[in-house]
Amino acid sequence: MVSEKMRRVLIVDDEPMIRKGLEIMIRQCGGQSHQIRLAADGEEAIRLMMEEAPDFLFTDIRMPKMDGLELCRRLAGMETDIQIVVVSGYGDFEYARQCVSYGVKEYILKPVSKAELQSVLDKLEANSGRQESFVSVAKLDEWVVAMEEAVWTLDREKLGQVLKEWSDDFLSRRMSRHQQKELLEEGYALLVKKLQANSVMPGANTLDLSQTVTAGDMFGRFTEASEKLLEELRFKRKGKARDPVEAAKAYIEEHLAQEVSLEEVAEMLGLNASYFSQLFKQVTGETFVHYRISRRMEKAKRLLGLANYRITDISYEVGYADHPHFTKTFKKFTGISPSEYRSRLGIE
Known about the structure:
Layout: E1 7-12, H1 16-28, E2 34-39, H2 42-51, E3 56-59, H3 68-78, E4 83-88, H4 93-99, E5 104-109, H5 114-127, H6 137-152, H7 156-172, H8 177-197, H9 215-236, H10 244-254, H11 262-269, H12 273-284, H13 288-304, H14 311-317, H15 323-334, H16 338-344
Parallel strand pairs: 1-2, 1-3, 3-4, 4-5
Helix pairs in contact: 3-4, 6-7, 6-8, 6-9, 7-9, 8-9
């Protein structure tokens, strides 16, 4: 693991002696530790950078397969924050000037002196004002918690705000491709875990970013996967972005004459039955079954106040095909039978 103060350096030159010479000189420059890797051409450099992005890149201009000019152009297209130094011969001066349009920070002429190299490294270090790659567990959890809340409440706008904040931070950090991939895959896994704690079952439990190239591509894929979780939950809830307990109450009220099960309502809401049962009791103070029966009895009392309803009809109206069972349940809840209740209302 590279320490926070250690800078990652990639030297690209097709001449082994020049590569090795630059490596030795950089190691001899005091004031900073460096992790140095070497590449013989632009193609090899790209492969190494896909594994771990360097802080500083020193590249020659004239190389086989992919020259330094093309390498700089590729990096400009990848929107990296790598600080590039072109190391060129006198004949390549015009090429070096072209590289400036691709974000090159410095260019130095061969042969390179130790003093000149030290000066360039000092400048690069002074420009390194961006954030370290370390993301605290607390910060990661803060983002994931905010995302989980937005997904749970089907608040696409809020989810977008959280993703924008995270994206700005993510793209501002100097991280290797592996670190970027690991952070987003872990963040997605935590989001899924939190949703599963609420017994929401996402369609995709994992996020694979192995086929992405740039940091922007990675976060774009992460964003798409996160938004998909919200849409899956919206579909399960049939587009109803309501509080699940309130939605359950309304459903029960609309289906008092039917044998509505806890599992049926949980499925309608896109929730696990066990979790929904606990949530319902926590919010209402009653079990699902007790609440449903109490609502049936309240409706029965209202209907008993209407003289044109027969008690047997009322029992069917509130979901009891077995009239004696209805009578027994009503008495348990009110302390008197349906006929006694009607009698007290003055209805014979």
